[in-house]
Design goal:
By secondary structure, the protein is of the alpha+beta class. It folds into two domains: 153 residues, ATPase, nucleotide binding domain (Nucleotidyltransferase, domain 5); 165 residues, ATPase, nucleotide binding domain (Nucleotidyltransferase, domain 5). The protein contains 13 helices and 18 strands. The strands form five sheets. Strands 3-2-1-9-10 form a five-stranded mixed sheet, sandwiched between helices. The chain has a five-stranded mixed sheet with strand order 13-12-11-17-18, sandwiched between helices. The chain has a three-stranded antiparallel sheet with strand order 5-4-6. The longest helix is centred in the last third of the chain and has 17 residues.
Length: 334
Protein backbone atom coordinates (compact mmCIF):
# COMPACT_ATOMS: atom_id res chain seq x y z
CA UNK A 1 0.00 0.00 0.00
CA UNK A 2 2.96 2.32 0.72
CA UNK A 3 3.70 2.66 -2.98
CA UNK A 4 0.32 4.22 -3.67
CA UNK A 5 0.80 6.92 -1.08
CA UNK A 6 3.97 8.40 -2.52
CA UNK A 7 3.94 11.15 -5.09
CA UNK A 8 0.64 12.59 -4.02
CA UNK A 9 1.88 15.97 -2.86
CA UNK A 10 4.38 18.03 -4.83
CA UNK A 11 5.50 21.58 -4.15
CA UNK A 12 6.74 23.47 -7.20
CA UNK A 13 8.63 26.72 -7.35
CA UNK A 14 7.69 27.68 -10.89
CA UNK A 15 10.29 30.31 -11.56
CA UNK A 16 11.24 32.40 -14.56
CA UNK A 17 14.76 31.00 -14.49
CA UNK A 18 14.34 27.57 -12.94
CA UNK A 19 11.79 25.07 -11.72
CA UNK A 20 12.48 23.41 -8.37
CA UNK A 21 10.23 20.63 -7.14
CA UNK A 22 9.81 19.25 -3.63
CA UNK A 23 8.12 15.95 -2.89
CA UNK A 24 6.71 15.31 0.55
CA UNK A 25 8.94 12.87 2.40
CA UNK A 26 11.69 13.04 -0.23
CA UNK A 27 12.85 16.66 -0.19
CA UNK A 28 13.95 18.46 -3.35
CA UNK A 29 13.85 16.01 -6.25
CA UNK A 30 14.23 18.24 -9.27
CA UNK A 31 16.04 21.43 -10.15
CA UNK A 32 16.04 22.38 -13.82
CA UNK A 33 16.17 25.60 -15.85
CA UNK A 34 12.71 26.62 -17.10
CA UNK A 35 13.61 26.42 -20.77
CA UNK A 36 11.83 24.39 -23.44
CA UNK A 37 13.07 23.63 -26.96
CA UNK A 38 10.29 23.12 -29.48
CA UNK A 39 10.29 22.06 -33.12
CA UNK A 40 8.27 24.76 -34.88
CA UNK A 41 7.21 22.52 -37.76
CA UNK A 42 5.66 19.77 -35.66
CA UNK A 43 5.10 21.58 -32.37
CA UNK A 44 6.69 18.75 -30.43
CA UNK A 45 8.92 19.29 -27.42
CA UNK A 46 12.52 18.32 -28.18
CA UNK A 47 14.16 19.09 -24.86
CA UNK A 48 13.27 20.54 -21.47
CA UNK A 49 15.46 21.90 -18.71
CA UNK A 50 19.24 21.59 -18.80
CA UNK A 51 19.40 20.21 -22.35
CA UNK A 52 17.16 22.98 -23.65
CA UNK A 53 19.19 25.66 -21.84
CA UNK A 54 22.28 24.62 -23.78
CA UNK A 55 20.34 25.40 -26.96
CA UNK A 56 19.45 29.00 -25.97
CA UNK A 57 20.74 31.33 -28.67
CA UNK A 58 22.12 28.41 -30.67
CA UNK A 59 19.19 26.98 -32.58
CA UNK A 60 18.48 26.58 -36.32
CA UNK A 61 15.32 28.09 -37.79
CA UNK A 62 12.91 25.26 -37.12
CA UNK A 63 13.87 24.82 -33.46
CA UNK A 64 13.03 27.46 -30.88
CA UNK A 65 14.42 27.37 -27.35
CA UNK A 66 12.16 29.55 -25.22
CA UNK A 67 11.56 30.43 -21.62
CA UNK A 68 7.77 30.13 -21.23
CA UNK A 69 7.71 32.31 -18.11
CA UNK A 70 8.61 35.98 -18.25
CA UNK A 71 8.68 38.32 -15.27
CA UNK A 72 7.35 35.61 -12.97
CA UNK A 73 4.17 34.94 -14.95
CA UNK A 74 3.23 32.63 -17.80
CA UNK A 75 3.91 34.26 -21.14
CA UNK A 76 3.41 31.16 -23.26
CA UNK A 77 0.61 28.98 -21.95
CA UNK A 78 0.94 25.86 -24.14
CA UNK A 79 4.70 25.62 -23.62
CA UNK A 80 4.35 26.05 -19.84
CA UNK A 81 1.78 23.26 -19.78
CA UNK A 82 4.10 20.94 -21.76
CA UNK A 83 7.00 21.81 -19.48
CA UNK A 84 4.97 21.10 -16.33
CA UNK A 85 3.73 17.82 -17.80
CA UNK A 86 7.32 16.78 -18.52
CA UNK A 87 8.49 17.64 -15.00
CA UNK A 88 5.50 16.01 -13.27
CA UNK A 89 6.06 12.80 -15.26
CA UNK A 90 9.74 12.93 -14.40
CA UNK A 91 8.97 13.23 -10.69
CA UNK A 92 6.08 10.77 -10.44
CA UNK A 93 6.78 8.34 -13.24
CA UNK A 94 3.63 6.68 -14.45
CA UNK A 95 1.73 7.18 -11.24
CA UNK A 96 -1.61 5.64 -10.29
CA UNK A 97 -3.06 8.75 -8.65
CA UNK A 98 -2.72 12.26 -9.96
CA UNK A 99 -0.70 14.37 -7.50
CA UNK A 100 -1.85 17.37 -5.51
CA UNK A 101 0.40 20.27 -6.37
CA UNK A 102 1.21 23.50 -4.60
CA UNK A 103 2.74 26.18 -6.82
CA UNK A 104 4.09 29.52 -5.74
CA UNK A 105 3.32 32.74 -7.55
CA UNK A 106 4.57 36.35 -7.24
CA UNK A 107 2.65 38.35 -4.63
CA UNK A 108 1.00 40.85 -6.98
CA UNK A 109 -0.37 38.69 -9.77
CA UNK A 110 -3.77 39.24 -11.36
CA UNK A 111 -6.66 36.77 -11.24
CA UNK A 112 -6.08 35.94 -14.91
CA UNK A 113 -2.43 35.09 -14.26
CA UNK A 114 -3.43 32.93 -11.27
CA UNK A 115 -5.97 31.08 -13.39
CA UNK A 116 -3.34 30.45 -16.06
CA UNK A 117 -1.08 28.74 -13.50
CA UNK A 118 -3.93 26.63 -12.10
CA UNK A 119 -5.13 25.61 -15.59
CA UNK A 120 -1.62 24.76 -16.81
CA UNK A 121 -0.96 22.55 -13.77
CA UNK A 122 -4.37 20.86 -14.02
CA UNK A 123 -3.88 20.16 -17.71
CA UNK A 124 -0.42 18.82 -16.93
CA UNK A 125 -1.96 16.19 -14.66
CA UNK A 126 -2.54 17.66 -11.20
CA UNK A 127 -5.53 16.41 -9.24
CA UNK A 128 -5.79 19.63 -7.29
CA UNK A 129 -3.76 22.83 -7.47
CA UNK A 130 -3.04 25.20 -4.58
CA UNK A 131 -1.27 28.53 -4.85
CA UNK A 132 1.02 30.13 -2.29
CA UNK A 133 2.58 33.58 -2.43
CA UNK A 134 6.32 33.55 -3.08
CA UNK A 135 7.43 35.70 -0.12
CA UNK A 136 5.39 33.57 2.28
CA UNK A 137 6.88 30.36 0.88
CA UNK A 138 10.34 31.96 1.04
CA UNK A 139 9.81 32.93 4.69
CA UNK A 140 8.73 29.41 5.63
CA UNK A 141 11.71 28.00 3.72
CA UNK A 142 14.09 30.37 5.50
CA UNK A 143 12.92 28.87 8.79
CA UNK A 144 10.92 31.87 10.01
CA UNK A 145 7.89 31.07 12.16
CA UNK A 146 5.36 33.15 10.27
CA UNK A 147 2.39 32.27 12.47
CA UNK A 148 3.50 34.57 15.33
CA UNK A 149 2.18 38.14 15.63
CA UNK A 150 5.46 39.84 14.86
CA UNK A 151 6.79 41.36 11.67
CA UNK A 152 9.30 39.67 9.39
CA UNK A 153 10.51 41.16 6.16
CA UNK A 154 11.44 38.93 3.26
CA UNK A 155 13.03 40.06 0.00
CA UNK A 156 12.86 37.24 -2.53
CA UNK A 157 14.86 37.97 -5.68
CA UNK A 158 14.26 35.41 -8.39
CA UNK A 159 14.84 35.42 -12.13
CA UNK A 160 11.83 37.44 -13.22
CA UNK A 161 10.48 39.16 -10.12
CA UNK A 162 11.58 40.53 -6.80
CA UNK A 163 8.95 39.99 -4.13
CA UNK A 164 9.15 42.05 -0.98
CA UNK A 165 6.75 41.41 1.87
CA UNK A 166 6.24 42.12 5.53
CA UNK A 167 4.73 38.99 7.01
CA UNK A 168 2.88 38.61 10.28
CA UNK A 169 0.35 36.04 11.53
CA UNK A 170 0.80 33.87 8.45
CA UNK A 171 -0.11 36.49 5.87
CA UNK A 172 1.54 39.42 4.15
CA UNK A 173 0.68 42.81 5.61
CA UNK A 174 2.45 44.95 3.00
CA UNK A 175 3.83 43.51 -0.20
CA UNK A 176 5.36 44.68 -3.42
CA UNK A 177 6.31 42.72 -6.51
CA UNK A 178 8.55 44.33 -9.09
CA UNK A 179 9.73 42.99 -12.40
CA UNK A 180 13.38 43.70 -11.68
CA UNK A 181 15.41 40.62 -10.79
CA UNK A 182 18.04 38.25 -12.18
CA UNK A 183 16.96 38.72 -15.81
CA UNK A 184 17.10 42.51 -15.58
CA UNK A 185 20.64 42.24 -14.19
CA UNK A 186 21.58 40.15 -17.24
CA UNK A 187 19.96 42.65 -19.61
CA UNK A 188 21.80 45.52 -17.92
CA UNK A 189 25.09 43.69 -18.48
CA UNK A 190 24.32 43.07 -22.18
CA UNK A 191 23.48 46.78 -22.67
CA UNK A 192 26.56 47.95 -20.81
CA UNK A 193 29.00 45.73 -22.74
CA UNK A 194 27.40 46.86 -25.99
CA UNK A 195 27.65 50.53 -25.06
CA UNK A 196 31.11 50.50 -23.53
CA UNK A 197 32.99 47.87 -25.55
CA UNK A 198 30.91 47.80 -28.74
CA UNK A 199 30.48 44.06 -28.33
CA UNK A 200 27.30 42.04 -28.49
CA UNK A 201 27.02 39.16 -26.02
CA UNK A 202 24.25 36.67 -25.39
CA UNK A 203 22.11 36.06 -22.29
CA UNK A 204 24.22 33.13 -21.16
CA UNK A 205 27.51 35.04 -21.28
CA UNK A 206 25.85 37.90 -19.39
CA UNK A 207 24.73 35.45 -16.72
CA UNK A 208 28.24 33.99 -16.41
CA UNK A 209 29.61 37.50 -15.95
CA UNK A 210 27.00 38.26 -13.30
CA UNK A 211 27.82 35.09 -11.35
CA UNK A 212 31.60 35.36 -11.60
CA UNK A 213 32.45 39.05 -11.39
CA UNK A 214 29.12 40.81 -10.90
CA UNK A 215 28.82 43.08 -7.87
CA UNK A 216 26.64 45.95 -6.67
CA UNK A 217 28.82 47.16 -3.80
CA UNK A 218 32.47 48.24 -4.20
CA UNK A 219 34.82 45.26 -3.79
CA UNK A 220 38.12 45.43 -1.92
CA UNK A 221 39.78 43.36 -4.63
CA UNK A 222 38.92 43.95 -8.29
CA UNK A 223 38.26 40.66 -10.11
CA UNK A 224 38.19 40.09 -13.85
CA UNK A 225 36.87 37.65 -16.42
CA UNK A 226 37.49 37.18 -20.11
CA UNK A 227 34.48 36.97 -22.38
CA UNK A 228 33.94 36.53 -26.08
CA UNK A 229 31.32 38.31 -28.11
CA UNK A 230 30.69 39.76 -31.56
CA UNK A 231 32.41 43.04 -32.34
CA UNK A 232 29.73 45.42 -33.64
CA UNK A 233 32.17 47.31 -35.85
CA UNK A 234 33.92 44.45 -37.64
CA UNK A 235 31.21 41.84 -37.12
CA UNK A 236 33.87 39.33 -35.99
CA UNK A 237 34.27 37.46 -32.69
CA UNK A 238 36.39 39.34 -30.19
CA UNK A 239 37.69 38.73 -26.67
CA UNK A 240 37.61 41.34 -23.91
CA UNK A 241 38.44 41.34 -20.22
CA UNK A 242 35.71 42.68 -17.96
CA UNK A 243 36.40 43.89 -14.41
CA UNK A 244 34.09 43.78 -11.43
CA UNK A 245 34.38 47.57 -11.14
CA UNK A 246 32.65 47.79 -14.55
CA UNK A 247 29.95 45.40 -13.36
CA UNK A 248 29.34 47.72 -10.42
CA UNK A 249 28.55 50.48 -12.91
CA UNK A 250 26.45 48.18 -15.14
CA UNK A 251 24.31 46.82 -12.31
CA UNK A 252 23.81 50.04 -10.35
CA UNK A 253 20.42 50.83 -11.88
CA UNK A 254 18.54 47.53 -11.30
CA UNK A 255 20.10 47.22 -7.83
CA UNK A 256 18.89 50.72 -6.91
CA UNK A 257 15.36 49.87 -8.10
CA UNK A 258 15.28 46.90 -5.72
CA UNK A 259 16.61 48.94 -2.79
CA UNK A 260 14.06 51.69 -3.50
CA UNK A 261 11.22 49.16 -3.53
CA UNK A 262 12.35 47.76 -0.15
CA UNK A 263 12.40 51.34 1.11
CA UNK A 264 8.87 52.02 -0.08
CA UNK A 265 7.58 48.83 1.57
CA UNK A 266 9.22 49.90 4.83
CA UNK A 267 7.50 53.29 4.52
CA UNK A 268 4.10 51.61 4.22
CA UNK A 269 4.72 49.23 7.14
CA UNK A 270 2.73 49.85 10.35
CA UNK A 271 5.04 51.23 13.09
CA UNK A 272 4.83 48.19 15.41
CA UNK A 273 5.87 45.85 12.62
CA UNK A 274 8.59 48.25 11.47
CA UNK A 275 10.04 48.10 14.99
CA UNK A 276 10.04 44.26 14.79
CA UNK A 277 11.87 44.38 11.47
CA UNK A 278 14.59 46.69 12.75
CA UNK A 279 15.12 44.18 15.61
CA UNK A 280 15.01 41.02 13.54
CA UNK A 281 16.52 42.26 10.30
CA UNK A 282 15.61 41.64 6.66
CA UNK A 283 15.82 38.14 5.18
CA UNK A 284 16.97 37.77 1.60
CA UNK A 285 16.14 34.68 -0.44
CA UNK A 286 16.17 33.61 -4.09
CA UNK A 287 19.06 33.14 -6.49
CA UNK A 288 19.20 36.85 -7.31
CA UNK A 289 20.29 37.74 -3.78
CA UNK A 290 23.59 35.91 -4.34
CA UNK A 291 24.90 38.74 -6.48
CA UNK A 292 27.95 40.07 -4.70
CA UNK A 293 27.30 42.91 -2.27
CA UNK A 294 23.51 43.21 -2.60
CA UNK A 295 23.06 42.48 1.10
CA UNK A 296 25.69 45.12 1.99
CA UNK A 297 24.04 47.68 -0.30
CA UNK A 298 20.62 47.08 1.25
CA UNK A 299 22.06 47.21 4.76
CA UNK A 300 23.87 50.49 4.06
CA UNK A 301 20.79 52.13 2.53
CA UNK A 302 18.24 50.99 5.13
CA UNK A 303 20.38 50.79 8.25
CA UNK A 304 18.76 47.43 9.04
CA UNK A 305 20.67 44.19 9.43
CA UNK A 306 20.33 42.03 6.27
CA UNK A 307 20.68 38.25 6.35
CA UNK A 308 20.87 35.85 3.43
CA UNK A 309 18.89 32.66 4.05
CA UNK A 310 20.80 29.38 4.35
CA UNK A 311 19.76 27.89 1.03
CA UNK A 312 18.58 30.96 -0.85
CA UNK A 313 17.94 29.23 -4.18
CA UNK A 314 15.87 26.38 -2.73
CA UNK A 315 14.14 28.51 -0.08
CA UNK A 316 10.87 29.01 -1.94
CA UNK A 317 10.63 25.34 -2.93
CA UNK A 318 11.41 24.21 0.62
CA UNK A 319 8.76 26.56 1.98
CA UNK A 320 6.24 25.31 -0.57
CA UNK A 321 7.17 21.79 0.52
CA UNK A 322 6.66 22.58 4.19
CA UNK A 323 3.34 24.22 3.36
CA UNK A 324 2.28 20.88 1.84
CA UNK A 325 1.93 19.54 5.39
CA UNK A 326 -1.05 21.83 5.83
CA UNK A 327 -2.66 20.75 2.56
CA UNK A 328 -5.32 18.68 4.26
CA UNK A 329 -6.61 21.71 6.17
CA UNK A 330 -6.56 23.75 2.94
CA UNK A 331 -8.35 20.94 1.15
CA UNK A 332 -11.13 20.93 3.72
CA UNK A 333 -11.51 24.69 3.46
CA UNK A 334 -12.22 24.57 -0.27
Amino acid sequence: MEMFKWGQDIGIDLGTASVIAYVKGKGIVLREPSVVAIDNNTGEVLAVGKEARRMLGRTPGNIVATRPLRDGVISNYTVTEKMLKYFINKICGKFVFAPRIMICIPSQVTEVEKKAVIDAASQAGARKVFLIEEPIAAAIGAGIDISKPCGNMVVDIGGGTTDIAVISLGGSVVSESLKVAGDKFDEAIVKYIKRKHNIMIGERTAEDLKINVGCVFPKIQDTEMEIRGRDLITGLPKNVIIHSSEMLEALAEPATLIVDAVHSVLEKTPPELAADISDRGIYMTGGGCLIDGLDKLLQTRTGINVMIAQEPISCVALGTGKALDNLDTLDRRK
